[in-house]
Every structure is written in C-alpha cells, then in structure tokens.
Amino acid sequence: MNDFLARRRGLAKNCSHPVLLWAGSRVSRNFAANTYPFRASSHFLYFTGLNLAETVIYLEAGNLILFWDELPESAALWHGDSPTRDQLADQLQAQASYPLAKLAQFTANAATIPLVNPHDRQHQAQILNRPVEFPLVAEDLALAQALIDLRLTQDAAARSEISQAIAVTIRAQQAGMKITQNAKTEAKVRAWMEQVVAAHQFNLAYTSIVTTQGQVLHQEHSPHTLKPGDLLLVDLGAETPGGWAADITRTWPVSGKFSATQREIYEVVLAAQTQAIAAIKPGVEFWEIHRIALQVITEGLFGLGILQGSLRDLLALEIGTTFFPHGIGHLLGLDVHDMEDLGDLAGYGPGRNRSPKPGWRYLRLHRPLQEHMVVTIEPGFYQIPQLLNQARLDPNLGQWINWVVLTKFADVKGIRIEDDVLVTANGAEVLSQGLVKKTDDLESLWL
Amino acid sequence: MNDFLARRRGLAKNCSHPVLLWAGSRVSRNFAANTYPFRASSHFLYFTGLNLAETVIYLEAGNLILFWDELPESAALWHGDSPTRDQLADQLQAQASYPLAKLAQFTANAATIPLVNPHDRQHQAQILNRPVEFPLVAEDLALAQALIDLRLTQDAAARSEISQAIAVTIRAQQAGMKITQNAKTEAKVRAWMEQVVAAHQFNLAYTSIVTTQGQVLHQEHSPHTLKPGDLLLVDLGAETPGGWAADITRTWPVSGKFSATQREIYEVVLAAQTQAIAAIKPGVEFWEIHRIALQVITEGLFGLGILQGSLRDLLALEIGTTFFPHGIGHLLGLDVHDMEDLGDLAGYGPGRNRSPKPGWRYLRLHRPLQEHMVVTIEPGFYQIPQLLNQARLDPNLGQWINWVVLTKFADVKGIRIEDDVLVTANGAEVLSQGLVKKTDDLESLWL
C-alpha cells in the first residue's frame, strides 16, 4: 500500500490541480445483466490497485478521497457479502469517503482523464459540467503529462507486478509448446494456454494471437487446423489481478522441427532482436532501436538472396519494411500498449509526431529510453500478400526483391519473437528471458 | 440459410413496419484498440447468423438489405483478407447492400430494438431521429411483440444450435468433474472447463459460476481452495459461434463422496427438479412448475426436520423460499435469459407483472408453456446468511425452522441442479440429459 501512497505523492508534485479518476462502469454483452468481466481504468488502478466498478477517487496533495455507493442489502443474495465503504476506505488508506452523490462538491478546478467507453466519458462531462474528450482541455492535458511522467518508468512495485505477469505468461507459453505435439487445431493450443492463465486467477492482457497465419498481424481468431509444415505464431500475455500486463511472442514449428527455410528466416529475426536489445540503454532513442532491427533484417534477407542489389541502396530504400512493417515495440505497463488511452501523448515526446513512412508509421514509441522503462522488443518477418503485391507493382521496389528466391521461402508466412525488456542503468534486462527461443532449444522440447 | 429466410418471412407476417436491426459496435477494455470479444445483438443474429460489428440490416416483407462499410485496404495488414460487401450480401441472401451512409434513406416508419450499450442506443436514436429507449415507442413495441412471438418457441435450426451448445457444455462439465480429483482450487476447475469450450471454438454464454460458496447465487469469482468436505457448484454454459446458449448446473462433492447431509438435501433438490419437469407440457403455466418445485422442496425439508409444524402451514407461508429464493427457470435461446434485453416483455405475458413476494419476485418467466419453448429447470437449496437472519428475526417465520436440526446441515451451503428442457407436444424432453446428476452416478466418477 505504501507504493500507492508514494504514487499519490508523486502525482501531487507534478500536478497542481485536484484530480478525479473514475474506475469506469461495467459493459454489457447481449443484455444488461450479462456483462463482460470488469476492468478498471489503468490510471485508477495505478493509485489504488482496486478493480471495482462505479468507483471514483479524488487526489489532492497526496491525499485520497473515495467515492462509492455501498450495495443495497438485497445484493447480498446474488453477490454475497461486500465491503462497507469504511472498509474500502481503510484498504485504500483514504483520508475520507463519501457516496457518489457527493462527487459534485469536489469538481471545482478538477482535472481528469477521459475513460475509454464513450458512455462513461459523457458521465464524466456531465459531472464536471465541461467537455471531457480529446483533444484535452488544458487542466486535463496537464494531468495527462503528470501521469505520463510517473508512468513512463516503472517503480519497484510495478516491476514486481510485471514480473508476475511475465512468469504466468511463460508458464502458459511453455504449456502451449508442449500441447502442440498432441493438438490438432490452433484453438486447442490457445485454449490450453489460456487455461493456465485463468487457473492462476490472472486475466488476459489482450486478445491472444495463436495462428498459423502469422502474416495477419492481429489475427484474433484461431480457426485453422495444424499441419506438419506450419509455424505457429503465439502472441499471448497475462495480466495480474492488479492490472499489470505481460506481452510475449514465440513462433514454433507445429512438427517440432523447423524446415531449412524457416530456420534461416527465424535466425534473421532472432539476430535482429538480439542486436536491438543489445543497443538498449538510457538516453538511446527508441527510434534507433527500431532502425537497428530493420537493418539487421534487411542484411539478413540480403544474405539469403531474398533482397538483391546493393545493401546500401536496400537500407536507404527501407525495403525491409515490406517484410517487417510494424514497429519494434512499445511501452508495457498497466496497459499492454501502455497509456495508449492517451493517444500518442505518452508514446511520442513533446513535438514529436508519427512519421508517414512505411514501417515507421506504426512505431508506437518515439522517445529517448530511460532507466526503468519497460518496453517490448518484437521484430518480425511476414509475407503479407498486400505488401508484396504493392512492392511487385512498384518499379522502385520490385526489382530489389528476388521473387524466385522468395518463392522457396513460401513456408514462412510469419515469424515474430517478442520479449519484455527493462531498461537498466547501463543497458537492458530481458524480463522474459526464462522462455526458450533459440531454434535448437525449441526443437529439443519435442524430443 | 433457408432457416434465416423463413424467420424473415415470419417476421413480415407479424410486423407491418419495416425493421432496422443493428449488430452493435465493439466495446473497449482499457484503450480503444483493446476490445472485448465482439458479440452481435441477438435479434440481429436471429435473422443473419452473422457476428459482425458495425453492421445493420433492413427487413421488409421478408427481404433483407445489408448496410456495411468495407474495411479500408490498409486493414488487411492487421486483419487479413475481409469479405467484400457483395460477398457478405450473397452470404445473407440479401436483396441489396449499401454503405452505412445510405442508412439514413431507409429510416421512414422503421421500427427497431434498443441495443444494450447506451452509446449504441444514442447512435440508433440519432439515425432514426427519435428516442430509442425503454419504454418503447409504439412501432418499436410492435416490433418487440413480433420478435417475441417468433422467438418464444424455437424452430428446428434453433433447437439444433441449442443442442450443439448443450453438447459442448456437457463435455466441459464432464471434464470439470474429472479434474476436480486433482485440482486444488476453484479457479483450476473453472479454467479447465472453460478451455474445453474454447477448444471447440465456442464462447461462454455467461460468466461461469464455479464455487464452493454456492449460497452466493451469482458468485462470479472463483478465489477459493478446494477442501475435502466442500460441494462444488458449477453453473456454466457454452454458446455456439452463431450465438445460441446452453445453461447447465451441477453440484458435486470435491472429495467424490457426498456426506449424509449433503446427500439428503441433494435428493430433495433432485426430486423437486424431477417433479417440476414431469409437470411440463403445453398449456401449463410456468408459474405452476415453480410452485411444484417449491412444494417438493418444502416437503423435503419438512421430512428432514429442518422445517417443523404443519406441512399445510409451511406451504401457505411459502417458507421454502428462504432456502429456494430464486425462480425455477427461464427462457433459453440466443440469450441465456432469452430476450431479457426487452425487460419482462418476453418473460411476462401481456398484463402480467412481477409478484412482490419472496421467491416469486425473481421468477423470470410467467407464461403458459408452448410446444418448442426451451426453458431451464433449476431448483436449488441455499443457506444464505441474510435470508436465514431475516427468518430468524421474523416471529412469523423463525418458529417454523428447526435451527438445531439445520445446524447439522452446515456442510450444505448451496446446491443447484439445472437442465435445459424442450417443451414437446405432450410433455418435455430434457436436452441436457446426457450429463450425470444422480448422487450414485456422480460418486462413481471418482471410483
């Protein structure tokens, strides 16, 4: 709990406004009582650790006031005992607590952050009697900047939570590798991994990607059967009960044996990741980490004969983005794309904006690295039909790809290798290093 | 697909208005791109079988017009190939299809049903330029009645879908019974069952209840360890990809062996269910099915000495509702509480309203049974502290409970037995009869 107090005091230093943070409300699936599992707003969780709907906190000078309505006595029949408001206030070390109706008395000069659900945002605007939306009004923007200053780097309690999320994710991924030998479908492997997460009473930080069609970057469905020559791309992360995320990707052969072509590309992607991680230290631009990965992938594909011409030209053209079209990684914390609810305010430093260029336009983080940032490093190689067609039809690009050689790599649809990395004082620590990723190590699991 | 055409024609017979039905939009979890799994509105699914967000259909005279915006080409990078509007229109056997912007030209005189998400409802109201909310305006009420007329009974295609949902649910429950012998926590058993559902590429129709604290009727969390004397109450239902639900509850001993007291109460609950099901046939009031279950439970507790005095007085007082406080069941279909998005319009026939009386106030269905209705039959026994305290303090009730005898049944916190039942021409068919429920059969699973 002292961690939460320290965060409240940290906010008070950075933000001169009193702050109202809403947990948010439950959302329904097909009828009102049939709700999705509730997940409080990350900003709210950051200061409370409390995943409770219809709850609001008021933060000022490091103090917290809780607003929450106790459930009616009749609710006990359906939901059992619930805490009293006083008990919740004690748990949060709140200075005071009131029913939600009192909230209107605490709105003067208050800053807030828009919730993700539009209905919730309307409620916030109604209570504050002003717009609560993007672009943010001045006081909300000031609060956003203060929150970003705090949350860009992870304190010890946050690092502990992230490590727990990673530990459970590793167990799930290991279970997935093991069950693949006996599974006939993507869905079976996915369900098997997700039950490991659920059995730990952790949630999923995001919709898992478990697919033999790795070239579809956000393939959220798993409808395919597993065939011996397939690679299975698994991007799955657990979330702790307190809301902290892991985000790990591995790609392994369904048969337990990489083909020669799969192994060659895999080694290129792994080299890109290794060199990207090796370059991480405080002060280095994340942009540079991305550039290194793109360079290693380009060099690797040149070495395999997939790219042809002069390496210097290939790098200048950035043709590697045809095969590695997304960013090298992103912030990781309470959100799997941390603070993406603030748009690019967190990911992009002041005065920085997304580049329109292929490959770069999807880079989610463009800041100098700082000690105690946690980022993902996730290079990939994909044969995406739309991008290959674009390159083929583009006289400036198509000539640099050896289409005959590329045909030999048809069994490599998509490979991604993703780890969660803590920026340390002098370099980087791979928090998810406990999970195998070398080709030989992956193959040895099948022996 | 002919099933969907038949439903569209059925609606045209019952409803003179043209009809607009929205699938609904995705809802986000902690940031916009991190969404919950999408689930289209049940009314939309009933006529299309299509689980696709941001889609609208216009139904008139049995014809269907599809409104949907094709995804931008850039979406292929993230989400792969998506169908064209023409392909979707073919799949739905639509008479025409347009972008969503054309919707405004089809609003004259159109009836609709409010979606569950308030933001979606606002969008509907904006397009139709009138309120879309409860209580319904006249044309929407007419549509609701027409939909209820159709959906109150299940056609052959619906019964087939419900049977598939039941089949997968039975496999999940069987897996749960088996894993209980080796599981240490509620969460493990729950995760194990849910992975069976997910491996079939089915969803969960509702938040599972997997608990040793069965006295909490809607205990959505599973935080407890399993102890040898516990009963585990498992209320879990799968949903087909087309959206059709199952809803089955079993209660089994963690140790594989009912205690004498657990067995005695279980037999009372099972007798209540057996007699309730035996009374089902077209024309019988569902109210009467509830009354029979309440009577059998009251007689059973009287026989065990938990209730005392004259049986006639006990029945008149309805003291059985202290131990069986919820309704005997509800409609089952595309929603686990079918059409509960319409409030009580579907569950309660014209001119009928909820009774304020204990036990009856939670009855979700109050209509005469009809052939091809599917209902749940789910009697239970619970020791709910709040209700027992109320009874103890009530001079009219407390004297009828033998508190000393009740103490001996302390290891029976909650038992529920729930099956899914089809009303047939002459009686009832228990669709979920393939899942064991006799005490001896449950115990034999552990041998």
Automatic annotation (TrEMBL), chains A, B:
One Pfam entry name: AMP_N
InterPro entries: Aminopep_P_N, Creatin/AminoP/Spt16_N, Creatinase/aminopeptidase-like, Pept_M24, Peptidase_M24B_aminopep-P_CS, X-Pro_dipept-like
Domain annotation Aminopeptidase P N-terminal: ranges: 1-124
GO cellular component terms, A-Z: cytosol
GO BP, one annotated term: proteolysis
Coiled-coil regions, chain positions: none
UniProt GO MF annotations: manganese ion binding; metalloaminopeptidase activity
EC number of the protein: 3.4.11.9
Keywords, in A-Z order: Aminopeptidase, Hydrolase, Manganese, Metal-binding, Protease
Enzyme's top EC category: hydrolase
Gene3D superfamilies linked: Creatinase/methionine aminopeptidase superfamily, Creatinase/prolidase N-terminal domain
Catalytic reaction annotation: Release of any N-terminal amino acid, including proline, that is linked to proline, even from a dipeptide or tripeptide
PROSITE patterns on file: PROLINE_PEPTIDASE
Cofactor: Mn(2+)
Family stated for the protein in its record: Belongs to the peptidase M24B family.
Name of protein: Xaa-Pro aminopeptidase
